[in-house]
Structure formats: C-alpha cells, structure tokens
From TrEMBL:
GO terms for biological process: amino acid transport. It is found in: Cell membrane. The lineage of its organism: Bacteria, Pseudomonadati, Pseudomonadota, Alphaproteobacteria, Hyphomicrobiales. PANTHER family: ABC TRANSPORTER PERMEASE PROTEIN, BRANCHED-CHAIN AMINO ACID TRANSPORT SYSTEM PERMEASE PROTEIN LIVH. It holds the Pfam family BPD_transp_2. One of its GO terms (molecular function) is transmembrane transporter activity. One of its GO terms (cellular component) is plasma membrane. InterPro entries: ABC_transp_permease, BCAA_transport_permease. Keywords: Amino-acid transport, Cell membrane, Membrane, Transmembrane, Transmembrane helix, Transport. It comes from the Bacteria. The chain crosses the membrane at residues 6-28, 60-79, 91-113, 133-157, 183-209, 215-232, 239-259, 265-286. This is Branched-chain amino acid ABC transporter permease. The keyword Transmembrane applies.
Length: 292
C-alpha cells in the first residue's frame, strides 16, 4: 500500500508538469488549430536562460519570474514574426515551421551552452516529507507550483476582460471580431502564455531529469498524451489528462513487470492511440458537429 501511495504521489508531481505542457499545447492549438511540435524545445531554451541567470548570481525566484516574463515576450514575438504571415498558409507550411523552430532552439541551446548535462537547482530541497519517503520536497513543490499556476489561469480566463476576449477569440473568432476583439493579438497573447507555462514546466522538471538540450523530448510526448486524452479543445480536460498520464505511467512502470521503467514512454503512446481510436475528441473535448 505504501508503494502504491508513493507512486501515485510521484505520478501527481510529474503529472503536474505534463499538465502544464498539455495546457500550453492546447492553448496554441485553440489559437491556430495546429500542434506546436517545438513547445518542448521552447521550454528547454527558457530553462537554460533561467540556469544562466542563476549562474550570473540572480536569486532563484528572481530568475524564475524573469524567465517567465522573457518567455512570454518571446512567444508573442514568434507568433508575430513567424506564424502571423503563415496565417492563411497550408497546413504543411505550419508543420515545417514548427519543425524548423524545434531544430533551431535545440541547436542554438547546444551551441550556446553545449550538450553536456548540467544540474539545475531546486528551491524546495531534496528531503523527504511526511516520513517514510512517500514524497520528496521537490515533488511536493512541483505539485504546489502547478496548482497555483492553474488557479491563476482559471481566474484570469474567468474574471478578466482579456481572458474572456481570448476565450471568445479561440471559440468563435468571426463573432469576436464583430464585437471589437482584436483576434490577432489574442492569438499572440495565447502564444506568449503558452511559452510562459512551458518555461514553468521546464524549470520544475529540470532538477529531476537534469538540464540538457534534449531534456524535454519525452516530456513533450507525455504532454501530447495528456492533451489528447483530455481533449485538444478543452484546457481543463488537458490538465486532467496530464495528471492522469503521470499517475498511469508511474503505476504501470511499477506494477506491470512487462513494462518496467524502460517502457514507460510506451504507455503515453498507447494512450494516444487508444483515445484516438475510441474518442478522437478526447474525454472532455467538444463534439464536432458538421452541418450538411
């Protein structure tokens, strides 16, 4: 029972990171209806920026919030300079642009900081909490940061004019334009927020997986799995899906001998295929209705 509880708590911790990635993926998908394959590399690059700021002597939380701000600005700039001109381009053009961004951020990080593994500090410490080693302080910190971030986003989208405008622009851009919403800038803000959320995910997971240019590849796959399971049209569903993927892959890797720790990534891929086969819109995604 203790092992089961430990794996569930560890799954909640990593699931919180997957939930952040899934939420970032869904935010961009709702804005431009395409999956951002470079989301993980953008988060990785932001994490390197935070590491560099800490190396220069900036306190951890100062570097944390400064990196979030820089990531937000970078996300807006990328949308305005790269994807706004591609607004009416074919789907293949967007895919090529995403792959190009993936390669650019990965190579640029390796060029600037090289490909050696670096340790990333945690502000929460590494000691165990609640006795018996059920959950570490960093894992508990990851859960807390994720929940605070999700609550802030919920309040932003529910209670602010900008948040409501972003929701309207994502749901029905034509009607939003008619009531004066600047849909283009709402999309850009969505990109900025997605980049900032990805930066939080990168900085929280870096002390666990260590910092290197390829650190976010598997995290991105888990994020995609959470987004698909929850529904690409449902931010709340993506969050639930991310937590669910974290718990499922932890329990499967521990209690299913065939899977083991080495094949846990296969669980995420199997979840994607299974959900797409039986409920393509995800567990909480909106049903697509076509008028004929």
């Amino acid at each position: 029972m203790e092992l089961f509880l430990h794996q569930v708590l560890a799954g909640l911790a990593t699931g919180g990171i997957y939930a952040c990635m899934a939420l970032a993926i869904v935010m961009i998908y709702q804005a431009i209806h395409h999956l951002n394959f470079a989301q993980g590399e953008m988060a990785m690059f932001s994490t390197f920026v935070a590491w560099q700021l800490i190396e220069w002597g900036v306190p951890y939380w100062g570097a944390f919030f400064l990196t979030i701000g820089l990531s937000f600005v970078a996300g807006v700039v990328i949308e305005r300079t790269v994807f706004k001109p591609l607004q009416r381009a074919p789907v293949l053009a967007h895919i090529v642009a995403f792959i190009a961004l993936f390669a650019i951020f990965n190579s640029l990080a390796g060029f600037i900081w090289d490909f050696t593994i670096k340790s990333f500090p945690t502000p929460f410490g590494q000691q165990s909490l609640f006795g018996g080693g059920l959950i570490g302080a960093h894992d508990a910190g990851m859960i807390a940061v994720t929940l605070v971030l999700l609550v802030l986003l919920f309040l932003f989208f529910r209670n602010t004019r900008v948040g409501l405008a972003m929701r309207a622009a994502a749901t029905n851009p034509e009607s939003a334009r008619l009531v004066g919403v600047r849909v283009g800038w709402m999309i850009a803000l969505g990109w900025g927020m997605a980049a900032a959320i990805g930066a939080v995910a990168g900085m929280m997971i870096a002390p666990v997986v260590f910092l290197e240019p390829n650190m976010m590849l598997s995290i991105l796959i888990y994020g995609f799995a959470g987004a698909v399971v929850g529904g690409l049209t449902s931010p709340g569903g993506a969050v639930i899906g991310g937590f669910a993927v974290g718990i499922i892959e932890n329990l499967a890797g521990t209690f299913i001998p065939v899977v083991g720790p080495e094949l846990k990534l296969t669980i995420a891929l199997a979840l994607i295929v299974t959900v797409l086969m039986f409920k393509p819109t995800g567990l909480f995604g909106a049903r697509v209705v076509t008028r004929v």
